[in-house]
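Final paragraph of the annual report: two paired records, presented back to back.
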Amino acid sequence: MLFLSIGIFLVWWSLQQIPADKWEDFKGSLKKANYWLMIPVFFVLSGSHVLRSMRWKILMKPLGFSPKLPNVFFAVMVGYLANLAIPRLGEVLKCTILARYEKVPAEKLIGTIVVERAFDVISLAIVFLTAFILQYDIIGEYGVELSKKLFEGKSGNISFIKLGIVLTALIIIVLLIKKLFQFFNHLSIVVAIKKIIIGIGEGLTSIQHLQQKGRFIAYSVFIWLLYIIGTWVGLMATEGSAHLGLPAAISALAFASIGMIITPGGIGAYAFFLAKVLEKNGVSFEIGFANGTLQWFAQFLIVMIVGFCCLILLPWYNKKRIQ
């Protein structure tokens, strides 16, 4: 509810940023949008989900598991569906789905999820670096602007007091969790959590024993290339942003990805961050927000349609396998 509230607030707050005399431009941009472009975006992003499923399978092999690709894909899409409600819930859910249908220990799979997310963070960092190189004047300025808002003091400079408070809080939380684990060591829930932590460790070390490292890296590259292509095609959907090229698409993806992390399915945050980047590229905020809303809705629709189809097909496919 907290993350959903943040998303709803960002939708409301973003709409307040549109001047009264620009509302017609915002609505007109959505009315004139080329909705046919949602079709190629549908296949591009669906392809990225298939590649993500194939990449996840590679991580399971060193652990001695080789689940069927359809089940892995079903689990991934149902996980995305769950993420629309609560961020990161889907990461746990897709592990339990495979544990049920493929008899793979869920705690071991959580380790592979950590590896996946670590590579996604590295990939996102590369996208940011690429955007920074291609649009140094735009991304550099926006990045500094965001950093100042987070850690700026009254003087207008970076506040080391704020940084110190954040670091101290993190250290206290880690020490407190450690003490609680020691004190309640006998409880079954603590034992279960320790098993998960051990599983995470095994998942992280599994990267050393990958038999298909080249394929794993290739899948990672193509996943993010498809994200970039999907964003670029999405920019072409509205008149005010159709002229923007690949560098703007990379920059938009970099910052919009942050929105996908902080709210369920990126509601509110995805469109806001994308609009702010497009604004730096000379596109008015209302047009950028219209495009961001359209792109977010396309991704939301893909997850809803494919996710629900996978939810229905999952028991049917496995019942057919048994028969």
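The closing record of the year follows.
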Amino acid sequence: MLFKKNNKSITIPKHIAIILDGNGRWAKQRGMPRTFGHQVGIENIRKIALVASDLGIKVLSVFAFSTENWKRPTDEVEFLMKMPSEFEKRFKDDFKQYDIKVVFTGRTNHLSLENQEILNRITSLSKDRSGMILNICFDYGSYDELTEAVKQISFEVKENQLTIEEITEQTVTNHLYTKDLLPLDLLIRPSGEIRLSNFMLWQAAYAELYFCKTYWPSFSKKDLILAIKAYNSRERRYGGLKG
């Protein structure tokens, strides 16, 4: 439990996802290049991850780079491709201290060999930790994720490992990149935009959605708590009724 409001205990969502939006606009407001916004945004992943760990959140997923972000200007993409290296150098000790397990969700075949090695190294070094899971969605998109799931399921049917009649919603879930993570409870999008932008479309089917105007580099513990309060004000019925 986090705190009490009107003598009512507040439930902490087990799995929260955040779309890291607004870095460029935050930087523009300050007369700085977009890459400066991304730099501060990377630092804020560390800050919010440590806050989330303290609050008792089990899984924090962050949308750091999408399959569509390759369309951004070359200098911006090149900067973002430095993120794994920066992440490893600057934050590994903090996450070790907090016993945070780091995993990456998304494609890897579009990344350089150097970045693939970095992601594998970060994952390997933290795999035995038992604290919060920080799931960094890097070169991730739901269309790609679902397409790959369909391909895998189709292959299993072709190889007689699975029949069409055996395919269920759980079958699809078990073939997603996030199959080893807890179900998504709350999806947060800062920056004022009100859309999911190809992020966790299947997982968000019955998650609570929360939108705020704060740009990601300025998103703080206070903003996270406001989102959790909003989550607690919702009645989660999953399509049914509560008596």
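The beta strands are 4-5, 8-9, 15-19, 59-66, 101-105, 133-140, 186-189, 208-211. This concludes the annual technical report; the extension proposal builds directly on these records.
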